[in-house]
Design a protein that fits this description.
Number of helices: 2
Oligomer: single chain
Order of helices and strands: EHEEHE
Radius of gyration: 12 Å
Strand order of the largest sheet: 2-3-1-4
CATH topology: Alpha-Beta Plaits
Strand content: 25-35%
């Protein structure tokens, strides 16, 4: 499992976060996604991810996104299996 971090500028409210989260869920098979307008970040947990596809999708929504990093070996807990 990897944690992919994207910088996202232009999120103004919880609805912006929700739009990005929904789009990412529709584009890729992921374990979880969390956008945070205050930190200007979207974090996606997945086995593998096409980062260019995610960046393009976020940009098409009208935000300014870029890929920052991928962190290997993200440990999951029992409860992670119920999150989406």
């Amino acid at each position: 499992m990897k944690k992919y971090t994207f910088a996202v500028n232009g999120m103004q409210c919880a609805m912006c976060e929700s739009h990005i989260n929904d789009m990412v869920r529709n584009l890729a098979k992921i374990k979880s996604v969390k956008s945070d307008r205050h930190q200007k970040r979207t974090i996606v947990t997945a086995d593998e991810l096409d980062v260019d596809k995610i960046v393009d999708g976020i940009n098409k929504l009208g935000y300014d996104a870029s890929f920052l990093s991928a962190e290997d070996n993200v440990k999951s807990t029992f409860f992670d299996h119920f999150r989406r």
